[in-house]
Amino acid sequence: MIDLTPSVLSIFIFVSGLAAGSFMNVCIYRLPRGLSIIRPASRCPHCNTPIRPFDNIPLLSFVILKGRCRTCGARIHWRYPVVELLNGILWILLFNRFGASWTILPLLFLISSLIVITFIDLEHMIIPDIITVPGTFLGIALSPLIPDSFFRLERLGMMNSLTGAVTGFLLFFIIAILGSWVFRKEAMGGGDVKLMAMVGAFTGWKGVIFTTFAGSLIGSIVGIAIIVRGKNKDTIIPFGPYLAAGAAASVFYGQEIIDIWLRWLGR
Ligand SMILES: [Zn+2]
Fold it and tell me: Of the candidates 107, 178, 253, 267, which lies 20 to 30 Å from 97 by C-alpha distance?
């Protein structure tokens, strides 16, 4: 009989989150460059020296090496420790929110995918289909296990997952068409459409609606901040990271925020 106290389990989940974050960094660097995420082993992008296992420990190695390659001294991108730490923290929060059950595995996958998508979209302005298309089908397949955030059910279920994926796809397909018609250029890419199908597969149609509003709100706040700081307002900012943040908010606190809002409306 293995008896793990919650704190030991928390540490295990956090360390697993860091390790997964290390692999996610490989995905963030290699997927948009069309490189294999399996081979070869990690190398310094500056001097191409393979990174030794003890220099590849999530978070710790970055601190020990003071953020520089051991061989050539080139700076290691800040993204590496940030992605690892962010993933470790969000995995712990998911664990606290939904409890220590293996049914949180699909949500761990969703949140980590959203992190990978955010950093790829910020740098390359694309959301790789290789994440969102299989991700959508994975969400539908695992929906009988996924803890529900919106429907006051224990599990999301196949029907809510399917209607969610279709809602996300259609809503953003229409927004993309309207956007290109109004602005005479591509305002919303096909990558966003498939991302929202995936979000719908994991959260249902209510999650799609919530993510759309939350993403737009976060996008507006950041957009205003950028204009206030005097940056060029024509700077193109990808919408994917805002949708990803909105989707994460919907997984964690969607129903709570809706309840607060309804109470505020006096219902
Ligand atoms: Zn190097």
Answer: 267
pLDDT at 251: 93
How is residue 154 written in tokens?
A: 């224990």
pTM greater than the 0.85 cutoff: yes
CA 85 – ligand 1 centroid, Å: 23
Q: What is the pLDDT of residue 6?
A: 66
Distance 45 CA to ligand 1 centre (A): 7
Residue ranges in 143-239 assigned as alpha helix (H): 158-183, 190-228
Q: What is the pLDDT of residues 136-192, one digit of tens each?
A: 999 999 999 999 888 888 899 999 999 999 999 999 999 989 888 887 776 678 899
Examine residue 134 and say whether the peptide bond preceding it is cis (omega within 30 degrees of 0): no
Residue 93 has pLDDT above 80, yes or no: yes
Q: What residues form DSSP beta bridges with 265?
A: none
**And the tokens for 99?**
């409890």
Structure token pair of residue 120: 């790829």
DSSP codes joined into one string, 18-59: HHHHHHHHHHHHHGGGT--SSSS--B-TTT-PBPPGGG-STT
User: Helix 240-264 vs helix 190-228: angle between axes, to the nearest 10 degrees?
Assistant: 80
* Residue bearing tokens 């992190």: 115
Place 133 in a pLDDT band, splitting at 50, 70 and 90: very high
Task: Report the DSSP beta bridge partners of residue 50.
Answer: 43
Element (H, E) at 62: helix 60-64
Centroid of ligand 1 to alpha carbon of 51 (angstroms): 9
Q: What is the dihedral of CA 174, 187, 195, 221, to 10 degrees?
A: -110
CB 107 within 8 A of CB 87: no
How far apart are the CA of 46 and the centre of ligand 1, in A?
Answer: 5
